[in-house]
């Protein structure tokens, strides 16, 4: 038995961030140097969004803790406060050596605050990127509260250096979901279709999320979007939005798809099944980061609507349109002739988990100074 195992707490609040960190959790669980804990909160515990806790439970991780941080009445600041309270209590019990957070969610910010204010090392996955809207403020705030940075590419690393982060604290590992995208464990298309009872041959994917800084306009934007899809003639797999402010307006408008045989609407999809369906889709439309990250790797045509992905790293041809229904309809008319090339290596080569593990096996990383320093460029 190995003494003094390093205790690692992973925090996950959404189906999206779990898809990013799943391979990282798994590779540490299989290594005897680490004891892994998974703190599950946010969307994972909401039935309306598919109760994706089930997907985490299917992984059979040894130490999974759930904490309810959200009600429909909660605003982002109250969700932040509640998550800090729950995670702080959990960390006092576990006494972790490291808290691992991902991306730009409110839960991510809570994890960074709890770690930095309790003298616990914080590692941020995919910092240094441009999110757009309030998400970008959160992402950069998390980076400044974090001690260790696992970034997806050189551009992200350079931005962290611009922000005063130490070169020695930055590790370029790629985007961890690429590990899963090209693994040999993805289900066959027939399996995915049978699992979700999808009976049409050809289809496109729909993922449209609220933009928190445009919450007052989301009902109108969604109506334009839904109307354009209803006027089109193709089949669509529609996935619910995340649970940010404005999500209820989107879900309410999606009720117009009910009973229409061209639409299959899901609160959530299992990540591997989602990837298989995306890989074989005619195109993806909406404003999800899946159109920026996953779709380019598969060479899928992309229609990106509005401002949510503004200034994100766009390493592919993308049809960018405004929120009005005329612009969306024109994009739908032209997308069939849009044949983008597959993008290679923009966010790694599928070995993020092994690079992550090797970094944590190096004793130097555990000597990282808990007292953050600003390095002038």
Outline:
The chain is α/β, with parallel strands linked by helices.
Describe this protein's structure.
The protein has about 375 residues and is an alpha/beta fold. Helices cover about 35% and strands about 15% of the residues. The chain contains 14 helices and 13 strands. It has helices spanning about 15-30, 55, 75-95, 105-115, 135-145, 155-160, 175-180, 190-195, 220-230, 245-255, 270-280, 295-300, 325-335, 350-360, and strands at about 5-10, 35-40, 65, 100, 120-125, 150, 170, 205, 235-240, 265, 285, 300-305, 320. The strands form 2 sheets. The protein has a 7-stranded parallel beta sheet, with helices on both faces. Helix 4 (about 105-115) links the parallel strand 4 (about 100) and strand 5 (about 120-125). Helix 3 packs across helix 4. The radius of gyration is 20 Å and the shape is globular. It starts with 5 loop residues before the first strand and ends in a 16-residue tail after the last helix.
Whole-number mean pLDDT: 91
Residue share in helices?
25-40%
Query: What integer value in Å does the Rg equal?
Result: 20 Å
Number of helices: 14
Q: What's the number of extended β-strand segments?
A: 13
Q: Sheet bearing the most strands, described?
A: 7 strands, parallel
Report the end-to-end length measured between terminal Cα atoms: 45 Å
* Residues in β-strands, percent: 5-15%
Give the oligomeric state of the chains in this entry, treating copies of one chain as homo and distinct chains as hetero: single chain
Name the overall outline.
Answer: globular
Provide the succession of SSEs.
EHEHEHEHEHEHEHHEHEHEHEHEEHH
Strand order of the largest sheet: 3-2-1-4-5-6-7
What structural class do helix, strand and pairing data support? alpha/beta
- Please mark out the parts with pLDDT under 50 across 5 or more consecutive residues, or reply none: none
């Amino acid at each position: 038995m190995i003494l003094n195992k390093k205790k690692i707490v992973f925090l996950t609040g959404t189906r999206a961030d779990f898809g990013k960190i799943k391979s990282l959790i798994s590779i540490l669980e299989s290594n005897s140097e680490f004891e892994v804990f998974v703190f599950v909160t946010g969307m994972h515990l909401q039935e309306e969004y598919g109760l994706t806790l089930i997907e985490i439970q299917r992984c059979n991780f040894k130490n999974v803790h759930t904490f309810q941080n959200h009600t429909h009445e909660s605003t982002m600041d109250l969700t932040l406060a509640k998550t800090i309270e729950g995670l702080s209590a959990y960390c006092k019990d576990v006494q972790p050596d490291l808290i691992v957070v991902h991306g730009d969610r409110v839960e991510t910010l809570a994890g960074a605050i709890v770690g930095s204010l309790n003298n616990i090392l914080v590692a941020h996955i995919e910092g240094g990127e441009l999110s757009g809207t309030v998400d970008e403020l959160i992402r950069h705030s998390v980076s400044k509260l974090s001690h260790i940075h696992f970034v997806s590419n050189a551009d992200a690393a350079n931005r962290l250096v611009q922000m005063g982060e130490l070169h020695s604290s930055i590790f370029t590992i790629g985007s961890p979901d690429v590990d899963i995208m090209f693994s040999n464990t993805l289900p066959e298309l027939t399996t995915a279709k049978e699992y979700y009872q999808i009976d049409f041959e050809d289809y496109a994917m729909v993922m449209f999320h609220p933009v928190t800084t445009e919450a007052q306009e989301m009902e109108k934007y969604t109506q334009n979007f839904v109307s354009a899809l209803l006027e089109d003639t193709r089949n669509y797999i529609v996935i619910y939005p995340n649970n940010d402010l404005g999500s209820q307006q989107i879900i309410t408008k999606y009720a117009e798809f009910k009973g229409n045989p061209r639409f299959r609407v899901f609160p959530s999809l299992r990540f591997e099944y989602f990837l298989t369906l995306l890989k074989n889709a005619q195109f993806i439309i909406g404003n999800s980061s899946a159109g920026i990250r996953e779709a380019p790797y598969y060479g899928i045509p992309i229609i990106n609507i509005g401002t949510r992905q503004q200034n994100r790293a766009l390493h592919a041809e993308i049809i960018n349109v405004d929120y009005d229904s005329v612009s969306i309809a024109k994009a739908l008319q032209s997308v069939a002739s849009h044949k983008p090339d597959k993008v290679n290596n923009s966010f790694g080569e599928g070995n993020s988990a092994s690079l992550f593990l090797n970094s944590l096996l190096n004793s130097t990383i555990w000597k990282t100074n808990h007292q953050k320093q600003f390095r002038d460029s």
